[in-house]
Amino acid sequence: MKIMQKLKSKDFFLSKEFPFMIVKQDLDRFAPHSHEFFEFFYVTKGSNLHYLDGKEEVIKEGDIILLSPGKVHALKGKRDKEFEIINCIFLPNLLENHSYLVRNMKGFMELLYLEPFSKGYKLLHLTGSTDIKVRIILEELIAENKNTTKDSAAIIKVLLADLLVSVVRYFEEQKKGLPSKTKTLTKKAHAIIKSIEYIDKNFKEEIKLEDISLQKTGITKEYFCSIFKKITGRTFTEYISNLRVDYASKLLTGTQKPVSEICFESGFKDLSYFNRTFKAIKGITPNEYRKSR
Q1: Confidence band of 43 (pLDDT split at 50, 70, 90)
Q2: What is the CATH number of domain 5-176?
Q3: The CATH number of 238-292 is which of 1.10.8.100, 1.10.10.60, 1.20.1250.20, 1.10.730.10?
Q4: N or C: which end of the chain has fewer CB within 10 A?
Q5: Cα–Cα distance between 75 and 4 in angstroms, integer?
C-alpha cells in the first residue's frame, strides 16, 4: 500500500514544550499515512477494518492500537454505524521527568511508559478493570486537555503515564498466560459504563437509580454511587445537574426561548430549583448568564 502522507509533529502540537493531543472521533475512514509521533487509539464503540504493516484486521470496542513513528496505517471504511475512537498522539519528551517519582527511577520511561511501542505491541483487546480504567483515564485526558489551568499539563502527564503503565502490565499478564486478577469485574465495569452512557443520553428525562437497571448486574445502589463518583468526580445528582445546566446554557445563548421553557426542556421540573442549581454551578442566574453573552 502506497504511503499517501507523512504527518508532521509541527502540524499537530501547539507547543514544542507540550507535544500532546487527544480527540474523540466518529470516523468512517482515513487514508494510509505515517507520522513522526507516537500514537494510540482506543475503540469506544463499534468496529471497522484497520490496515497496519501490510495486514488488514477488524478492530472493535475494547481494542487499543499502539503505533510507533513511521508505521503506516489506515481505516478502510467497513464500519459499524456507531464506530468511534479516542485518538491520542504525543512525543516521548512529554513524559520525561514529569514528577519527582520518575526522576528517581532510572530508565522508568523507557522500561514502562514506552515499552508497548518499543516492543512492537500493535493491537490489544482490553477487558476487566484494565478496560474500564483505560476508558476513565482517556475521558479524564480529554476533559483535562480542554482546561487552561496551570496544573493541566502536569495532570495530563501523570494520566498518560498511568495509562501506558496499565497497558504494559495488562499485556505482560496476557503474555504470561496468567489470569487477570480483575476479569471478574468485567460485568460490573461495563454495567457502570453503560449506565453513564444512559444518563448522558437521557438527562433531559427524569432519571432515578432504578431506571438504570443495575439490579440485573448485582450492583447495589451504594456500590454504584461510590464508583460513579470516583469515575466522574461528582455524585449521581451533581452529574445529572451539570449535564442539564450545560444544556440549558447552550439554549440560553443559542435561542430566544423563555427561561421557563428552557428549564423544563433541560430536564428540570421546578423553575426555582433550576435557578438555584444554575447559579450554584455557573455562579450567576440564567437571566444574568444570557445577558452576559
Answers
A1: very high
A2: 2.60.120.10
A3: 1.10.10.60
A4: C
A5: 13
